[in-house]
Write a structure and sequence with these properties.
- The protein is an alpha/beta fold and 350 residues long.
- The chain folds into two domains: 5-113, Roll (CBS-domain), CATH 3.10.580.10; 122-344, Spore Coat Polysaccharide Biosynthesis Protein SpsA, Chain A, CATH 3.90.550.
- 27% of the residues lie in helices and 28% in strands.
- It contains eleven helices and 18 strands.
- Strands 10-9-6-11-16-13-17 form a seven-stranded mixed β-sheet.
């Protein structure tokens, strides 16, 4: 049964004993003090009441005298994963959702942790040298570089685990033992992790051929291990399935402005001129959904890149879908990207 948060609300003029009655019948084990205009004034727990009574408050006094006037709140636009992490870190059982100061919902930890289990395999590519990030990668694989307080690859893994994915494979090549030592079997995150190793680089798709033969018969999500993103992986998987695609490639719109006037001509006669035009393209975002039949095509091949594999499927008459990303996305390929990631991680909920 859904939590009926409205029944846990109480007005400022109610007494402490009234609040106790609300708390006793509330699944949140708290009372939310709300003004007549709907604005959240504060929050009261049995702990607040005990502290008030020890301080000399009487049971007939207004609940406002013991309430927490600055409770931790969130907004409707905040991601459920970020809210859940905060609640777990602060050991909170409930989180008021406010919009314009008004209480519009109350989230419980129970509902945030009821995540459907997804058996689709997730294949994370972590074998690159990270040459453009040297000297940072001289003794550390790029996916283990820390952005904020944790490695890039850990942030990626957690974003999948938060929405129910639990079966992971990590492709390694450069300094593989460091990656294996850090992530182990995945039990620290409540997931399973297996590893593949490329003796020599096999290309962006070639590593698919190293995956075990007993993969579940369902689409696999493949992602480069140096990407920060807030893409909704569940929605991506649903899009791929509903599109009946053989493979789905995530893309990102990229624009480029020519810093000069561009002249269009024919037979040395000017046809038109455009001052510093802007061109827009879709670029490969390094995230794919792949059907099992596509993986079988790679087995036995020495080296193959993902564009080659997808182009071949298109030429065969197959269906390769495109999924435009509107969410935050950053490919940490160069030093300025790495520096930007350090700033972004503090401003977005990843």
């Amino acid at each position: 049964m859904a939590f009926q948060w409205q029944k846990a609300c109480i007005s400022e003029d109610k007494t402490i004993i009234d609040a106790l009655g609300v708390i006793d019948h509330s699944a949140a084990k708290a009372a939310f003090v709300v003004r007549e205009d709907g604005v959240l004034s504060g929050l009261v727990t049995d702990g607040d009441i005990r502290r008030g009574l020890l301080g000399g408050a009487g049971m007939s006094e207004a609940v406002a005298s013991v309430m927490n006037r600055s409770p931790l709140t969130c907004e409707p636009s905040d991601s459920s994963q970020a809210i859940r992490r905060i609640m777990e870190a602060k050991q909170l059982m409930h989180m008021p959702v406010v919009e314009g100061g008004k209480l519009v919902n109350v989230l419980t930890l129970q509902e945030l942790t009821e995540t459907p289990r997804r058996d689709n395999p997730v294949f994370l590519m972590a074998g690159g040298y990270g040459s453009r990030l040297r000297p940072l990668t001289d003794a550390c694989p790029k996916p283990l570089l820390r952005v904020g307080s944790k490695p890039i690859l850990e942030t990626i893994l957690e974003s999948f685990a938060d929405v129910g994915f639990h079966r992971f494979y990590i492709s390694t090549h450069y300094l593989p033992e460091m990656i294996k030592e850090y992530f182990g079997d995945g039990s620290r995150w409540g997931v399973s992790i297996e590893y593949t190793y490329e003796d020599q680089p096999l290309g962006t798709a070639g590593a698919l051929g190293l995956l075990p033969d007993d993969l579940p018969d369902m689409p696999l999500i493949m992602m480069n291990g140096d990407i920060l993103t807030k893409v909704n992986f569940s929605r991506l998987l649903k899009y791929h399935t509903e599109s009946a695609a053989d493979a789905t490639m995530c893309v990102r719109e990229h624009e480029y402005q020519v810093p000069y006037g561009v002249v269009q001509a024919e037979d040395f006669k000017v046809q038109s001129m455009h001052e510093k035009p802007v061109y827009r393209y879709y670029i490969n975002a390094g995230i794919y959904v792949i059907n099992p039949a596509m993986i079988e095509k790679v087995r036995g091949l020495k080296q193959v890149d993902m564009p080659t594999l997808l182009n071949q499927r298109v030429e065969e008459g197959g269906h390769v879908a495109m999924y435009p990303l509107d969410e935050y996305w950053l490919d940490i390929g160069r030093m300025n990207d790495f520096e930007r990631a350090q700033q972004d991680i503090n401003n977005i909920a990843l």
